[in-house]
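Exercise 7. Given the encoded structure of a 211-residue chain, write a plausible sequence.
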């Protein structure tokens, strides 16, 4: 399904550090990552219909964090479109003994809860769900395998809640790594480089029928 945007559309992005990307220190509150790239493309491509873009990402977040701040950081903004990118920390943090991840069952239940709340509060709001991207070396080598149930959960929830689209970020990064291993797509196997953020933005725009 292609998204239809106007200058009055409120497009909100929420997620972890990949979405945050310094937005709380940025005068435009957009950060330096894929959210800014999406905003800039939409503004330059068709200024007349460029939407209002809101970044509600917070570094380190997992699904339980989104549940706690959903009303304040999503519903109170009254968005017309919500794009959710979450799941990497739910797995990655669980691979480190000093951190805590979020197992697939509470991840799925928590994700279902925030989507239910969104549908009840803003039934006309369009939903865009983003696959968790990648966990590759130098991050723990088993990360990508452990991420697979979370990818499936995102697709199942997208179907359950009638999402406008699923953004296939995991496959995009895997294809990019395979095609050009000489390009640094992430800084540490998880956080995108500038090229990685551009890959996210381009994949998002294409999935939503906007590029």
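Solution.
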């Amino acid at each position: 399904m292609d998204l239809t945007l106007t200058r009055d559309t409120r497009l909100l992005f929420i997620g972890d550090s990949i979405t945050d990307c310094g937005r709380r220190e940025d005068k435009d509150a957009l950060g330096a990552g894929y959210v800014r790239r999406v905003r800039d493309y939409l503004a330059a491509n068709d200024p007349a219909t460029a939407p209002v873009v809101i970044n509600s990402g917070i570094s380190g977040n997992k699904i339980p964090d989104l549940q706690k701040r959903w009303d304040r950081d999503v519903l109170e903004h009254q968005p017309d479109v919500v794009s959710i990118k979450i799941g990497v920390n739910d797995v990655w943090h669980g691979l480190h003994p000093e951190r805590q991840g979020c197992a697939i069952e509470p991840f799925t239940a928590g994700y279902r809860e925030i989507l239910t709340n969104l549908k009840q509060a803003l039934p006309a709001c369009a939903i865009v769900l983003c696959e968790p991207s990648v966990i590759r070396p130098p991050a723990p080598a088993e990360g990508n395998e452990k991420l697979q149930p979370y990818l499936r959960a995102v697709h199942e929830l997208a179907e359950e809640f009638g999402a406008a689209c699923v953004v296939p970020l995991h496959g995009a990064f895997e294809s990019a790594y395979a095609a050009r291993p000489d390009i640094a797509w992430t800084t540490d196997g998880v956080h995108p480089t500038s090229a990685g953020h551009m890959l996210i933005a381009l994949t998002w725009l294409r999935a939503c029928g906007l590029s």
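Remark. The chain has a mean pLDDT of 97. Students should compare their own answers with the one above.
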